Amino acid sequence: MDARTLTDLDRKHLWHPYAQASPAVAAHPVVRADGVRLTLADGRELVDGMSSWWAAIHGYNHPRLNAAAREQLGDMAHVMFGGLTHEPAVRLGRRLSEMTGLEKVFLADSGSVAVEVAIKAAIQCTGRSRLLTVKGGYHGDTFGAMSVCDPVNGMHHLFSGVLPQHVFADRPPGGFGFHPGAPDGHGSGAGGSGEHGVDEAYLGHLGELVARHAGELAAIIVEPVVQGAGGMRFYHPAYLRRLRELADEYGILLIADEIATGFGRTGEMFGCDHAGIRPDIMCLGKALTGGYLTMAATLCTPEVAERVGVLMHGPTFMGNPLAAAVADASLTLLEERPWRDEVKRIEAGLVEGLAGAAGAPGVRDVRVLGAIGVVETVRPVDPSKVQDIVMEHGVWLRPFGHLVYTMPPYMTEPDDLARITTAMTAVAATLPA
User: Fold this and answer.
1) Out of 60, 135, 138, 416, which one is annotated catalytic?
2) How far is it, in rounded angstroms, from Cα 305 to Cα 103?
3) Scanning 198, 330, 340, 343, which has the fewest C-beta atoms within 10 Å of its C-beta?
């Protein structure tokens, strides 16, 4: 199909995420993806600054991941996981357990489902039904996951009347990561040491809230260090450590939603590593398969698994062999590549490249942590206008709300990263105060 036919048929038949069924602005047809570049049907090439919603950490069309998929297709693409097992799932489960220190692995089919499984496991394990989380969070689009997203400013407020009512602490104070344009150039730093910038009053707020509701709480669930789609905010690991202490003190489970932060994105393998803690339950997804296939995982300690007993969940495509084989290959590739150096290089490039956006009248904040760069705006952005600007610079980004941000593949070279930051700075220059 030519570009016009693709666009017309897409508009007629397809419903895109977070959009009307008949959107005013057409989607852009992609015909190929290689490395960090997307080729559109009209011939334009764009540097992908989004890693396809943070998943394609190795870039696109990687020969090692392609080979893993082809090899697995020769044996089987899928087989039910009820009563059967297979080597790709076993290998992946062993690897994830070794990486996280959590022995039991439930292979789900999306990040939202991984969160649903974590919530179910916590409720079955404890016999209690409420959760504690923090405002400003995002955990997915299904009903259990929506119930622990931000209840007021999140994207699911339309459903607040039918969702379970959980306990919400205030947003964690910001200040972790680098802030280009700030007097000292950063907050506490991506590998920040000590307790610089920690708000003692907020630590007290967490303690008071957990103590008040401890008897009804099954679990505390948070995104470690980075609040993703709820606002792309970074917070100090001390708050995460305090939640671990409170969970232990009151016999409450700690769930770490590492779907966005897992596999190196923040400069550590997992967000929890910044705080030096291990959760009772962990949710993984997005980068798990390197962006090739949908797969997620919910991991827990043997103690939690034993108390849960029969976990009442079973996706049709649970443990899909094709996804498991590619995920195992992706994690092997991650362990072999110098991902820490790559993420540090991207972090330094983002700090330098986004410094010019910090002084723009329409910019509230610029912040960087690992391979995450954020320009927070004073007013909500017009996504289509922002995309027109960045595409003129040969870049693909997906802005939303008050955010223009990038989470590029780890293989992104300095010239391509500079193109991304130049495009973001160009957007900042057009924003109204």
Assistant:
1) 138
2) 9
3) 340
Fill in the amino acid letter for 380: P
* DSSP secondary structure code for residue 60 in this structure: B
Residue 138 annotated in active site: yes
Torsion over CA: 21, 27, 32, 37 (sign) = negative
Domain 67-336 sits in CATH 3.40.640.10? yes
Concerning whether 18 is annotated as a catalytic residue, the answer is yes
Active-site residue among 48, 109, 150, 257?
257
Instruction: Please state the separation of Cα 268 from the chain's center in Å.
Output: 14
Tell me how many degrees the CA angle 134-136-138 measures, rounded to the nearest 5.
Answer: 90
Report helix, strand and coil shares of the chain as percent, to nearest 5.
40, 20, 40
- State the average pLDDT over residues 370-391: 97
Which CATH number applies to 3-58+338-430: 1.10.150.20, 3.90.1150.10, 3.40.50.20, 3.30.230.10? 3.90.1150.10
Q: What SS3 state is found at 30?
A: strand
Question: In this predicted model, what pLDDT tens digit does every residue of 174-220 receive, in sequence order?
Answer: 989 999 987 766 554 444 333 568 999 999 999 999 999 999 999 99
Domain ranges in the chain?
A: 3-58+338-430, 67-336
Task: Give the integer Cα–Cα distance in Å for 351 and 190.
Answer: 11
User: Angle at Cα 331 formed by Cα 329 and Cα 335, nearest 5°?
Assistant: 115
239: annotated active-site residue? no
Give tens-digit pLDDT for 51-91: 999 999 999 999 999 999 999 999 999 999 999 999 999 99
